[in-house]
């Protein structure tokens, strides 16, 4: 198995990418071919400076870099020798089995659509983010790749998310729900009402009905479906509220000597709480619906985030995620015989 | 000033409504006429049982009740002698200056549109909820009354929210922002892009541009504008995430004797944090755009929530909220002279 890694993507590249890739190689890299794409001289210098052994890796030199200010479409079209575009091109050409990048979400999304292409029945891939829930993690899609979605797209998200939950998250019978402002199937906009009916009739999933935003974080549902505008709100607002509350909690403990001592007593438990809300732990966001596995690691990924994204890519390939997904999508496309 | 109060609305009616109204009468009711609408016998029995003095109140007897299972339109049309519909009718007829209810949001919204009617230029009122922010409270609208909104509606929400922030929340120069999945004015759906342009050109407000969901809870913005579908997600998800995190925090403190002792040390600070997230504290949600002040108290309001909603109603009347809002909306309607 060959995993392609964008060594220049993300806020902490290339150092954290190299560190994460080295950890992946050590922990679960046996029998895997890990390919680093990037500025060869920069990678070698960074590795030497930080005592990272490059022996487990193949380096594919790239002369360009896609940065956060690049227009996604222009970057995908006009930076063929960037680590991001070259990686996607190699994936397309069969010179790799999966691609991992912490680079620009927009460029990765557009590049995946244009270069790797999508499964039959999928117009544009959805960004699916694993999120922390009280009971267990859940998958949220779309998280912002497609601001507007037709009902059929939301239905396909249900199918794709369900397959991912089974094949990569290890959920035997994943439950799928649609974000909506009420439990009744008459709730929401016309698009959500129609999507509800399609999901209800979808033979490939276990549809649990609408999920009200108040209950999303409970983690009772495995796959939470919504359009990219709403998904972005759910993803980022959760981060924002958690950050604000944990920040205020810090203030409570910093008040005086007594509260500081109290902090020591509950430090372990608070650490667990913080870890639960840590995007590094839950892993990267797959671009579901792409013809081959593409994993978007968080832009601010440290080594652990990169390592976990590489692990996700490995699981996708091992379990033939894209093949299984295509079969499920085909079932969706074929009208039932009367 | 005469405030009409739906004594039968909400999960804890009539007891908590009577308690809240009694507190309002004692704290800031001087010179005010507080009118309780409901089943007279039930109100009197409840008051007697709980030692609540009904002397400060006028009771308007009602023979019907709108409950949470009633269809909003049917309830508004066919239950004229319910406390909710009778209150709105009295408001419409000038037999009161404002109406407060913790009853069905749907029925109150539809009833307000049909009976009290809206200001000129407003098709349907928006539900505006004061929300807790790290820096200070902010107003979120629409919170679910209008799942789909045209750009002009979102623009009117900006105007109405800004007037409310000035007149009732005491913000001298309120900042208005539009929820969106990026700071750039090219972000979001076509409706949000057009709304952004309208808000930018709106002479009645200080428009701060788009606000990303991650920053909503910071409280740097006074008025946060979005459609009712997204607003419901923001409102309810914030509640859900806060509830989940505070619940997990409780688990951390309950772990053993040491952590329980630590809890005692930070109890005060944690109480403040909890109070901040308490919807009772921040008050009810005005139906902005109604021709006269209508305040929706949270369905689960206890006495404090009802008292604070009555206080809001008083401030709305004192500061001629609806008159000021109509003037601002008129300015929006008049095309600029070339």
Which H/E pattern describes the elements of chain A? EHEHEHHEHEEHEHEEHHHEEHH
The count of DSSP E runs of length 2 or more, i.e. the number of strands of chain A, is: 11
Shape of chain A: globular
What Rg of chain A do the Cα atoms give? Answer: 21 Å
Note the total helix count of chain A: 12
List low-pLDDT spans of chain A.
Answer: none
What about the largest sheet of chain A? 11 strands, mixed
Tell me roughly what share of residues is in helical segments of chain A.
Answer: 40-55%
Strand order of the largest sheet of chain A: 3-2-1-4-11-10-5-6-9-7-8
Percent range for β-strand residues of chain A: 15-25%
Q: Distance between the terminal alpha carbons of chain A, to the nearest Å?
A: 43 Å
Mean pLDDT reading of chain A:
92
Largest interface (CB within 8 Å) is between:
A-B, 55 and 55 residues
| Structural class assignment of chain A | alpha/beta
Q: Identify the quaternary structure here.
A: homodimer
Enzyme class (chains A, B): transferase
Family (chains A, B): Belongs to the PlsX family.
GO molecular function, one term (chains A, B): phosphate:acyl-[acyl carrier protein] acyltransferase activity
Pathway (chains A, B): Lipid metabolism; phospholipid metabolism
Briefly, what is this?
Chains A, B: Belongs to the PlsX family. By secondary structure, chain A is α/β, with parallel strands linked by helices.
Fill in the keyword field for this structure.
alpha/beta; 12 helices; 338 residues; homodimer
Give the helices and strands, then pairings.
Two copies of one chain form a homodimer.
Chain A: E1 2-6, H1 15-28, E2 33-38, H2 40-49, E3 57-61, H3 72-78, H4 83-92, E4 98-101, H5 105-116, E5 126-131, E6 138-141, H6 151-167, E7 175-179, H7 190-201, E8 206-211, E9 223-225, H8 228-253, H9 257-276, H10 279-282, E10 285-288, E11 294-296, H11 303-318, H12 321-333
Parallel strand pairs in A: 1-2, 1-4, 2-3, 4-11, 6-9, 7-8, 7-9
Antiparallel strand pairs in A: 5-6, 5-10, 10-11
Helix pairs in contact in A: 1-11, 3-5, 4-5, 6-7, 6-12
């Amino acid at each position: 198995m060959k995993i392609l890694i964008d060594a220049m993507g993300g806020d902490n590249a290339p150092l954290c990418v190299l560190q994460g890739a080295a950890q992946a190689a050590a922990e679960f890299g046996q029998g895997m071919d890990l390919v680093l794409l990037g500025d060869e001289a920069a990678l070698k210098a960074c590795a030497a400076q930080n005592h990272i052994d490059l022996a487990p890796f193949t380096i594919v030199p790239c002369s360009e870099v896609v940065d956060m200010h690049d227009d996604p479409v222009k970057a995908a079209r006009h930076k063929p020798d960037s680590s991001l575009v070259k990686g996607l091109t190699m994936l397309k050409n069969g010179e790799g089995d999966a691609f991992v990048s912490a680079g620009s979400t927009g460029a990765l999304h557009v590049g995946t659509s244009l270069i790797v292409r999508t499964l039959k029945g999928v117009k544009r891939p959805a960004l699916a983010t694993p999120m922390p829930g009280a009971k267990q993690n859940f998958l949220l899609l779309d998280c912002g790749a497609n601001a507007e979605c037709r009902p059929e797209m939301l239905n396909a998200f249900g199918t794709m998310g369900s397959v991912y939950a089974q094949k990569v998250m290890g959920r035997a019978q994943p439950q799928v729900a649609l974000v909506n402002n009420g439990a009744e199937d008459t709730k929401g906009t016309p698009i959500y009402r129609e999507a509800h009916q399609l999901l209800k009739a979808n033979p490939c999933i276990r549809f649990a009905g609408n999920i009200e935003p108040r209950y999303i974080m409970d983690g009772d549902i495995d796959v939470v479906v919504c359009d990219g505008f709403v998904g972005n709100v759910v993803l980022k607002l959760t981060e924002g509220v958690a950050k604000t509350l944990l920040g205020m909690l810090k203030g409570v403990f910093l008040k005086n000597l007594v509260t500081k001592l109290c902090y020591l007593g509950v430090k372990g438990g608070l650490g667990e709480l913080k870890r639960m809300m840590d995007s590094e732990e839950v892993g990267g966001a797959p671009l579901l619906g792409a013809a081959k596995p593409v994993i978007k690691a968080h832009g601010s990924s440290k080594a652990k985030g990169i390592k976990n994204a590489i692990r996700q890519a490995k699981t996708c390939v091992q379990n033939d995620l894209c093949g299984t997904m295509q079969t499920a999508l085909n079932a969706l496309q074929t009208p039932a015989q009367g």
